[in-house]
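Q: I have 167 residues here and want to know how they pack in 3D. Can you give me a structure?
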Amino acid sequence: MSIELAAATQTMPAGTPTSIHEFLAFKLGREEYGVDILRVQEIRSFELPTRMANAPAFILGVVNLRGVIVPIIDMRIKFGMEEVKYNSFTVVIVLNIGKQVIGMVVDGVSDVIALSHEQLRPVPEFSGSLDSQNLLAIGSVGDRMLILLDIEKVMGAHDMGLIAQAV
């Protein structure tokens, strides 16, 4: 199944079948984000990684995951959140992006949410630590708002230096 959410911000022609997209919902501070479930390899409890010299602050280090060296990114630091605490709810979402495996530290995982085209809203333009071009859409589920990340673009950003080319 391919996910083409760029169309979420455009008007679909009448009669176009509605497809459902599934996202893993997770928390960063008070906000709830979502990432394409097809990119998720596993969810692990947080363990302190081995620090790498001269790495940016948001790259906490690396862990050995069954023989694969995985860089661990703290998304709270990457997105400029003021308070970063590690507790029993802190987890690492292990992602497969192209041929790269990357770990993403988040405050906690909520659930898997299926969203239809009608539940997706365009991303407003704004400036900040998270470029709006790195977002797919805003998902609306009842009273919940989910910021849907284009994780390939986020991890492929120049300042991340983790993957050579976004998939």
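Q: Anything worth noting?
A: Residues 94 and 115 are 22 Å apart (CA to CA). The radius of gyration is 16 Å.
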